[in-house]
Amino acid sequence: MQMTTKASVQPVTKEVVDDKSKDLTTSGDSIRRRFLEFYASRGHKILPSASLVPDDPTVLLTIAGMLQFKPVFLGKVPRQVARATTAQRCIRTNDVENVGRTARHHTFFEMLGNFSFGDYFKKEAIRWAWELTTIEFGLPADRLWVSVYEDDDEAFAIWHHQVGVPVERIQRMGEDDNFWSSGPTGPCGPCSEIYYDFHPERGCTDTDLGDDTRFIEFYNLVFMQYNKKDDGSLEPLKQKNIDTGLGLERMARILQKVPNNYETDLIYPIIEKASKLANVSYFLANDQTKTQLKIIGDHLRAIVYLISDGVVPSNIGRGYVVRRLIRRAVRTGRLLGIKGDGRGNPEGAFLPEIAEKVIELSSQIHSDVKSRESRIIEELKREELRFVQTLERGEKLLEQMLADVVLKARENRILPCLAGRDAFLLYDTYGFPVEITMEVAEERGVKIDMNGFEVEMEHQKRQSQAAHNTVKLSVENDEEITDIISDTEFLGYETLAARAVVEGLLVNGKSVLQVSEGSDVEVLLNRTPFYAESGGQIGDNGLICTESGKKQKSVVEIKDVQKSPGNIFVHKGTIKEGVIEVGTEVNAAVDAKLRQRAKVHHTATHLLQAALKKVIGKETSQAGSLVAFDRLRFDFNFHRPLMEKELMEIEGLINGWIGDATLLQTKVMPLTEAKEAGAIAMFGEKYGEQVRVVEVPGVSMELCGGTHVSSTSEIRGFRIITEQGIASGIRRIEAVAGDAFIEYVNARDNHMRHLCSTLKVKAEEVTTRVETLLDELRVVRNEVSAAHAKAAVYKASMIASNAFPVGSSKKIRVLVECMDDTDADSLKSAAEYLIAALQDPAAVILGSSPGEGKVSLLAAFTPGVVDLGLQAGKFIGPIAKLCGGGGGGRPNFAQAGGRKPENLSNALAKAREDLVSIISEKTR
């Protein structure tokens, strides 16, 4: 958008007033539309809301309307427009415990904003904010109060002299309340806020704008006019900016004249839906029930929009935010008495029912939500049902823990406090977010030992990483070797061979001075070209050799390299020749072919992550990896198996990037600079102030200390071997690239050649030929099965005469027989024949041993026997146990199996004895 003139305050024309009089609606959708149109008429470009998943790597979620413009405000990106206005979806969870308890706290909210990038400044921003508030929205001027920064005389003068706000309704406030900063240094400035007064009758004496019972702050104007320097001093910006935010929910509350944000048309329809499922009336409910309904109304908005924007529930990052909100909503629904889906299905989920209402209300907020409805509903249902499975057990355990804590506290006359290890047990085993445990504990007056909880969390992290990230180095007197040996200098980025000095030798963890041929040894060098296992990449292989002239004195074959906590590289290998001593100068040489394989797989892993983000959503993130010589393995957060077409698209993207022959760029830079540039960091990983950034331009940028190819063309080819789930919400891809890819393709080609030769068909005909053979095999198996069934029926006809009558008042025909090696299906055919032949009332028990270590048992009762109270399923189970098995079924027909054919005759004898005894007792 091209701006040719500076902005000036535009007078409110009669046409504007007339237009406003035609639209007096106060709905949330109308407020949003009128705000945007108000600023559009004043030269602002209406821009769409950014995703809740920001491009800014320094924040987890979009928390403010200005976030998408932060690069412009910081001067890193040139402005595209001089003025803009947006309705931005935002998420904040730092005050989640206040949701439902206050009139204004939310996790999800909309921030309406107008922005100036070096165009207009204070005078226009203040005048337009006042016109919007008092004329467009019609708020009474005598109900409005204003705050300004304590030293901002310019803003104070504009509010008082130009707008006309009385001095007594303008308050100067300090830096904590009315000064905005982007960080320790950079753009900053004072801000001014507009408050609505619900109780003007209380007067202007000793007024506290922070009194929530009287005031609500609904519009914040930030005047970005300074640059904060390293020494804390402020210098004026050449380009002064405006960043404002008007809370949609807050303005709706004011205009719709309701006591809190939750009863506006933006949220109340969701609460109403939850009320119906809970079978309660919101307006007749007590305060606790109202709070619970408000929590569900708020959280479901956040959950739906987060999932819509690609956030998948998990235990890390953004995924943990949405999982925590879902679980909090589920527990709150249970406290309200919602069972199952709230519609009579105890095995169902109720959150999808409420989410439908959120989606219905979304059309004016984010039109794409409706098109993503099926995915949102599916994700919610899966997550809720998964949580419910462990919730009841966890709740019972927590209640018992809290009861024990309270009792112990009373006995010892101390304040009740739940141990951190108990809170961690609930988190780790039962999936209870610690925040939920804290809420439940707070309801009982119990505190949580959060320090203890964090200790347990850290202990778990250390345990899970121990096998890969730490090496125990100690000498006989338990003195840590790290106190003796200095850190190893790594040369492996620049060279694969180097001269070095042996600074230490370890055998079975003990320090030695000399090691001879045939021994396993750990070699510590002052410098090395060998890469030590880290970041998922395995350690290098190679040789460490000592020489004297042309005669080789010793050779150590290195098969692994690990890194100690003190950054000492531990070269693990076997002495193949000669003797190695501490202090000797050696040649350290990496196996170049294996290093190349690792480089290929590591770069391919970066490409794989980039492709996954493109195909299944940028929210997916790495959950672990292995970069080996023969393959790569990549774990990532996702809720379902990938479809075949998705896997093909991922492979296609990666092989396309390989074909582009893009040169990689590697830089070392400050961590903050790397994040600002968009480099991907592993969530929860700790980095130093300086980090190494590996970039495939236009494709991928990651913080990585591993080794990589110079050009993507070195990868040659990429193929996914498997994709599978390894844990709840975690998928794993194994793939090959480079030489491993060629070997894999050649092996598959050889298998295909052999198959073609065996089947005597061309490669393209193999599928059709195999399908034909399977069909033929199916027909033959059916024929064999029919023949077996026919033989079993024949055997049954021969033994039918062995049935004997039981019972005094009512004669029941009973048959208990062994049918040798008859299979289970044929045994069923025999039983059906016998029941029909013996007629009602009759009871048949058959057994067989269809193979080595196998037993088949079957019980069939006619209606007359079932009417006596006998059930085939319950009868056959104990008999099967005698044969080392079990089973069950319907009252009239049940099958069972076992693993001890040698016990079959005794089991059938027991069945005959029990059946005769029970029937005799029942028919007296």
What does this protein look like?
This protein is of the alpha+beta class and 924 residues long. Helix content is 39%, strand content 24%. The chain contains 25 helices and 34 strands. Helix 5 (153-163) links the parallel strand 4 (144-149) and strand 5 (170-173). Helix 8 (268-278) packs across helix 9. The radius of gyration is 37 Å and the shape is globular.
**Would you tell me the overall average pLDDT?**
87
Shape: globular
- Please indicate the percent range of residues in DSSP E strands (runs of 2 or more): 15-25%
The major sheet is characterized as: 9 strands, mixed
Which oligomeric state applies? single chain
Number of helices: 25
The low-confidence parts are 1-23, 463-479
* Overall helicity: 25-40%
Write down how many β-strands occur, each being a DSSP E stretch of 2 or more residues.
34
Distance between the termini: 99 Å
What would you call the structural class?
Answer: alpha+beta
Radius of gyration: 37 Å
List the helices and strands and how they pair.
Blueprint: H1 14-21, H2 28-40, E1 45-46, H3 70-73, E2 83-91, E3 108-117, H4 122-136, E4 144-149, H5 153-163, E5 170-173, H6 175-178, E6 179-181, E7 186-197, E8 215-228, E9 234-247, H7 248-256, H8 268-278, H9 287-308, H10 317-335, H11 351-360, H12 368-371, H13 373-412, E10 417-418, H14 420-430, H15 434-443, E11 447-448, H16 450-469, E12 489-490, E13 497-507, E14 510-512, E15 514-516, E16 520-525, E17 527-528, E18 542-548, E19 551-563, E20 569-581, E21 585-590, H17 592-616, E22 622-627, E23 632-637, H18 644-659, E24 665-670, H19 671-676, E25 690-696, E26 700-703, E27 718-727, E28 730-737, H20 739-759, H21 766-799, E29 804-806, E30 812-818, H22 824-838, E31 842-848, E32 855-861, H23 863-866, H24 872-881, E33 886-889, E34 893-898, H25 904-922
Parallel strand pairs: 1-2, 4-5, 10-11, 12-17, 30-31
Antiparallel strand pairs: 2-3, 3-9, 4-7, 6-7, 7-8, 8-9, 13-14, 13-16, 13-21, 15-20, 16-20, 18-19, 18-21, 19-20, 22-23, 23-28, 24-25, 25-26, 27-28, 29-30, 31-32, 32-34, 33-34
